[in-house]
């Protein structure tokens, strides 16, 4: 079979169906294992007598551990094996997450969260590198955007499951302990599945024909050569670019509010509603379910219009305005929850178009160097936002004050991104992708 007779659309669908589902499931488990501490906090805090400041610092320390191995992890995927590295990540983070059930002191909590970050470090940048082994650039952007859906999906699923586990008391262990144990074990199982199912590169894929393997490897190699024509850009050269700093500081500001919103939402809802822990988790799940709708609408709208920048800015600014609306004093809880559900709809509207911006506002070599820097700032914001939010709660700040702090972060992020220079329409890079084709 010659390259001319290969059904390119069928090949892209085959690759998408084989590669993406497992990665999507892994990312769901990853996000649940990093975020379920926000669900467990409703009971864990009183049982262990941890202050709000302890929780804020502990939640944030995860991101410090995460940053340590972020770049080495990506290099291991490129030079060693994505399959083996991801399997290691899954097994280690699943075990650490489960062992968090047995912490008893603030220091043990900090160590567990730090080790969880170290265990999971390298996963997301590793996925970015792994996708370069399978997808050309246009398809790769769509594949990465599809992962954004895993975040609200994970939390929307995890909230009701965690609500069911809160009241169990098996073998004398409290429900929040079982939450960590049972939500950590799937990662260990997925580690074994990954070792068996994942394929490192097209040349290793027995599920492709020899002609398909050669064609796919040829396309990816040609794209890599084309990117090298303009010459490589060093880190220092990239850091002198205005757009790099606007994108980095924009996501830093936004994620300072975004990560704190995600981790502290169950506590916020409980304080505002005065309801049970289970009800607070179910209400939180409603927020995340609205986020799933927002991700879908964002992808459809930004792809159809070819606009990335203003979809991103619109999501950030609308999140800020709706959060500020939920902070208005004197409102009943149903009204506040309506504000929060509307917030959920737009709070996940901005990430997909944001991660397309480096590829359309920077040269290919500058984008490759800068994405790691931008992602480091995005994760550092997770430490700062949660630490500040915990400090505010510990100082007995009202929920309205905390919500206004989060709103200000989103607003600042939107303002910074609005100054990013975009030349022309990004619609030119939008092509039929495996993600689109698999929807049919």
- Name the average pLDDT: 88
- CATH names the topology of the largest domain as Growth Hormone, Chain: A
Query: What portion of the residues fall into strands of 2 or more residues?
Result: under 5%
Q: Helical amount among residues, as a percent range?
A: over 70%
Radius of gyration: 22 Å
Model description:
Helix content is 78%, strand content 0%. It is an all-alpha fold. The chain folds into two domains: 1-226, MFS general substrate transporter like domains (Growth Hormone, Chain: A), CATH 1.20.1250.20; 230-421, MFS general substrate transporter like domains (Growth Hormone, Chain: A), CATH 1.20.1250.20. The radius of gyration is 22 Å and the shape is globular. Mean pLDDT is 88; it is low at 426-440.
Compact overview of the structure:
The chain starts with 7 loop residues before the first helix and ends with a helix.
């Amino acid at each position: 079979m010659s390259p001319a007779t290969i059904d390119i659309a069928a090949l892209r669908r085959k690759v998408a169906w084989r590669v993406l589902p497992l990665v999507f499931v892994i990312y769901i488990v990853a996000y649940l294992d990093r975020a379920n501490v926000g669900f467990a906090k409703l009971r864990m805090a009183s049982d262990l007598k941890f202050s709000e400041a302890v929780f804020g610092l502990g939640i944030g320390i995860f991101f410090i551990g995460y940053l340590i191995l972020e770049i080495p992890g990506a290099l291991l995927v490129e030079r060693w094996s994505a399959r083996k590295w991801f399997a290691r990540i899954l097994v280690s983070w699943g075990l650490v997450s489960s062992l968090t059930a047995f912490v008893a002191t603030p220091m043990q909590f900090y160590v567990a969260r730090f080790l969880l970050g170290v265990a999971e470090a390298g996963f997301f940048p590793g996925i970015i590198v792994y996708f370069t082994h399978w997808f050309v650039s246009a398809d790769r952007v769509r594949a990465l955007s599809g992962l954004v859906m895993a975040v609200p999906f994970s939390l929307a699923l995890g909230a009701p499951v965690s609500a069911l586990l809160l009241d169990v008391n098996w073998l004398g262990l409290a429900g929040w302990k079982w939450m960590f144990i049972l939500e950590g074990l799937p990662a260990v199982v997925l580690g074994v599945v990954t070792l068996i199912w994942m394929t490192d590169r097209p040349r290793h894929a027995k599920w492709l024909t020899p002609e398909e393997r050669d064609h796919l490897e040829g396309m990816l190699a040609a794209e890599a050569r084309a990117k090298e024509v303009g010459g490589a850009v060093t880190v220092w050269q990239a850091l002198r670019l205005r757009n790099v700093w606007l994108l980095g500081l924009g996501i830093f500001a936004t994620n300072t509010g975004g990560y704190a919103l995600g981790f502290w939402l169950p506590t916020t809802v409980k304080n505002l509603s005065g309801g049970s822990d289970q009800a607070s988790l179910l209400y939180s799940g409603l927020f995340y379910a609205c986020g799933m709708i927002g991700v879908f609408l964002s992808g459809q709208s930004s792809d159809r219009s070819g606009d990335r920048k203003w979809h991103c800015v619109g999501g950030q600014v609308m999140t800020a305005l709706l959060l500020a609306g939920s902070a208005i004093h004197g409102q009943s809880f149903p009204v506040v929850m309506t504000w929060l559900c509307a917030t959920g709809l737009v709070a996940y509207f901005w990430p997909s178009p944001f991660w397309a911006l480096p590829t359309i506002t920077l040269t290919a070599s500058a984008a490759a160097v800068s994405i790691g820097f931008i992602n480091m700032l995005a994760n550092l914001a997770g430490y700062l936002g949660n630490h500040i939010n915990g400090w505010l709660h510990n100082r007995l700040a009202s929920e309205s004050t905390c919500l206004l702090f989060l709103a200000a972060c989103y607003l600042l992020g939107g303002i910074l991104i609005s100054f990013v220079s975009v030349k022309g329409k990004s619609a030119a890079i939008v092509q039929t992708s495996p993600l689109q084709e698999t929807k049919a």
